[in-house]
Amino acid sequence: MTSTQAPAATSTPSPVLFEALAALGSSADDPFIPADAPFSPEQRVWLAGFLAGVRSSAIDVTDAGGRTPQLALHVLVGTQTGTAEAIAEDLGRAASGYGVAVTTIGLDDVEVDRLPAMGHVVVITSTYGEGEMPDNAELFWETLQASTAPRLDGLKFSVLALGDSGYDGFCQAGKLIDTRLEQLGAERILARVDCDVDYEEPAAAWTTQALSLFGALAPTDADAASAPAPAAKPAKKPGRTRSPWTRKTPYGATLAVNRVLSGPASSKEIRHYEFDLGDSGIEYAAGDALGVMPSNDPALVDAIIAELDATADESVDGSTLAERLTHGFEIRTPSKDLVAELADRAPDSELAGILALAQAETLDSWLRERDILDLLRSTSVRFDAESLLDVLRPLQHRAYSISSSPLAADGRVHLTVASVRYAVGDRAHGGVASTHLADRVAEGGTSGIFVSANAGFRVPSDDDAPLIMVGPGTGIAPFRSFLQERRERGATGRNWLFFGDQHRAHDFIYEDELGELLTGGVLDRLDLAFSRDQREKVYVQTRMRENGKELYAWLEEGGHFAVCGDASRMAKDVDQALHELIAEHGGRSTEAAAEYVHTLKREKRYIRDVY
Hints:
This protein is of the alpha/beta class. The protein is built from 23 helices and 21 strands. The strands form five sheets. Strands 1, 2, 3, 4, 5 and 6 form a six-stranded parallel beta sheet that branches. Helix 2 runs parallel beside helix 7 and helix 22 crosses helix 23.
């Protein structure tokens, strides 16, 4: 998409501009832009925001006493990886210029019964996995969709939804909240905007337009003179200075360590990485994630170029085809546009037949181990270079849980990553970022990185509080950082780790470190679950149930419960085990145990970093 450059701001809007706007007329969808104007949806969103800003800049909102009337706006944030929080911070910084005073609140801190009194609300929320609410929005959504939810007549709102169109549940969390607010009687003053992975431009346009429209609702001069300004707190400030290093401008960090952790007979390849942060000024906290900007496998790039009957140095959009395929596009995971194009142009193909079934699970299963080269070879359809790139998605960063505490890492940041490798027929396949790190960045080489803050996944602020951690496999990563953090802080709270994998002899990563933490008194309990070392498989949730009485006792003493790892199975099984042991050892009904878990979540004592 071609970006549109905003015109330079002027102190006084031109009368010619207003005359032009009047000549354009209006539409039912937007008061500024006619319905038949020749703009793309993205251009329409940007232009509407710009014009709204121009209109608001022409309004003198200063009252007779020299004060600027302000409207109290509550910004409610649902986040999994910190993106929604960053957008909310941008909105908060810009708000004062529109006569808006912002209060920013995480959705897990919002009491639905208080929504009617808020008056003016925007919701900025991501979507997790296949259309699920982010962790910090679960309880809010449960209450909002319940039959007991209050009427919201008089509430004015807008929603910004964040998502990834590569998933079927694209922006589903935002869509659900947007619809439910309207069902309860709230008035939508700005249509929901759904943002894909390249969210910056549409999010900025929505922010401008939302602030303009809400700012126009600020008290009039008479109202402001007779009533105090709304008692709204300023936007929540970030805990540390925002880094200039982002997914758009990653820092080229030197890879100082690339070490295999798993044993030679393991079915997995798990590696420990350390990046030197140099003079980047990058700050992070235990619990954050590190974004890695990968490059694609050069062998796969060459094979695709050959399949296209093209050449590596062929010019495409000012660069070579090889460069574009290496650094510009996803070539491991087929895009929905490519799948649809192939099915449309090859209606008798196996892919078209599967797509016609309209069964998402069947299609996902068929695509799971196939890359773009596999799809190109599965039909007789032929693409040229430009037409193929038109149906591919931009290459995205991969986020990995950081496995070090900044208090212990001495200017470095550590990762614990499983290299994804498998064969399909006679072809070797690999994960994009995991093999980028393992194979294409040698020690001493560089890779683009940036920090993704995860404020909802943190070491307990109370150093005396007990901490229970469940992290099998590479899920141990953030708990290695938690234990380092508590050791460096001199925390006195007890620490209990549940860890496991397939075989103790080959998959017990960080065994020596964990032994030292046990000996040193930092780690009070370590329960291991190696599933393939006996006939009956044993998992971390098995160990939880075996030690349920003591685990419940730790919770009753104010303990925190943290989980990291696979979301589709492990995290669900652990959650079920937690509910069951609370019911059993707390003498509670199923419903009462569920409420106990809800309380843990509300108190930020049950946190998850799952993927």
